[in-house]
């Protein structure tokens, strides 16, 4: 086994927390059951890692095997990366998409290898019709850097791909080209949507975040849901503003629905608008040029936070459509200019 | 001498002892007192609760008696009311059954507060398969609020063509695509689950199930070369392939009998559903085996 491969596998295994180690090794399916049984996973981590490397050497792990382990680690730790979303499009009147996974993989790899000579491309298919692609980038003269790979998750027979954000931006056009040509599209465009939560991005982009539908078998008609405030209330207490509370509840339910919101960490608004003010004669109001500012809303779960604003009394209902349109418009980056 | 020089030891200690004795005896006399007081309080509580229980029991007996009397005195009108109630319940059950039966028509819907939620139940060869929903908002323009159609079905295209102008056409077209997809998926799933023994490698498929590629042998244990089949379904509203290529993995020129078989397989895949073709392969194999033995 090559020294660089051994080092690469070692560093990857060291990243894996001990309680996930057996699960990930099983998913990797490179070391056999018998081999894994010889390992004492209760030792100190360094000893476990040494033993595993020894087993990998016995089985002559290749760079491809190591890359596959890296993909699996990343699949288990998706949230450690920030994901961008790309949308491809076909020309008008295109033939029906007869997607062939083998052809796609060959084509994708060839395009990158022709352009860069030194590049490691690995694939792993998942059950949800997605293929994870790992690309380690080199140049004409340098070997690929295995420690700064780019990941792409492509959903076949859809125009969408998710790419891990990286600082190496010069390879992005080439990557876009490879993806577009291999999947038989014409163009690729980056969407204004970004998050750590790949599942949420998928739910937003595929419009799958709301899966509750009214059928004749629905148990409770949607109108009957109560406010939940007055269950154990003493009947002598009345809410002064119960009408308003019910209005807020109704509007919130209409805007956000009953389903769990997809998880996003932020929404960013770039404003280039003229200053609007009630006070006449202020300096800012006289300014001809638009003001430029950046507003960023951050939260561990932005959409749930927005949903709770009006019921908590912090904001008026209905909320600004700029905030509520995020999943519908599939954007969390906005540029707002005066019309 | 000892008594005078160390008076504390004697007198004061004695006084202390007497003091302790007194306080101990006082405590003892108090305890029973407080315990007695508590006993008295609990005793009265028990009596009160017993009274309450007896009152409630009497009330229940009284009620039961009056209800029995009511039933005994029941009037003909009341019997009719009960019958009407039963009739209404029967009607309700009927309506529910009819609504459920709509599922089998393949297309049903329920009015919602903002429009209608359409349910498309797909089927293939009499087997009820997956259901898909499209929630429509009835506004100008008509729009789709949310849906459960898979992302690789061209819903936006179909909507762009028909939703505003001809909603019936929109629904029928969508039904066509979804039923065809369900049918193709069903055939591929059946091939994988029921005829794995005849396949010599994994079935290659894609999300729309419109490109299937597999290798198979008619005699699983035997010496014959495996066939490679590649099925293309260019018409997404069809459940039979538009292009079929069957080749023999042997590579060399085939004997005329193999060539005949190869050509006949191509025709079979074009004209019959995939799992039925394999079912006939399996039957033929059984027949051959029985002839041999």
From TrEMBL, chain A:
Keywords, alphabetical: Centromere, Chromosome, Nucleus
Pfam families: CENP-N
GO cellular component: chromosome, centromeric region; nucleoplasm
Superkingdom to which the source organism belongs: Eukaryota
Principal location class: nucleus
Cell compartment(s), UniProt: Chromosome, Centromere; Nucleus
Biological processes annotated in GO: CENP-A containing chromatin assembly; chromosome segregation
Keyword presence, Phosphoprotein: no
InterPro entries linked to this entry: CENP-NAC/CAD_complex (IPR052011), Chl4/mis15/CENP-N (IPR007902)
Family, as annotated: Belongs to the CENP-N/CHL4 family.
Protein name as catalogued: Centromere protein N
Organism: Mandrillus leucophaeus (Drill)
Gene that produces this protein: CENPN
TrEMBL record, chain B:
Keyword list, A-Z: Centromere, Chromosome, Nucleus
Cellular localisation: Chromosome, Centromere; Nucleus
UniProt-listed CDD domains: DRWD-C_CENP-O (cd23836), DRWD-N_CENP-O (cd23835)
Pfam families per UniProt: CENP-O (PF09496)
Keyword tRNA-binding set for record: no
Family: Belongs to the CENP-O/MCM21 family.
Protein name: Centromere protein O
Lineage: Eukaryota, Metazoa, Chordata, Craniata, Vertebrata
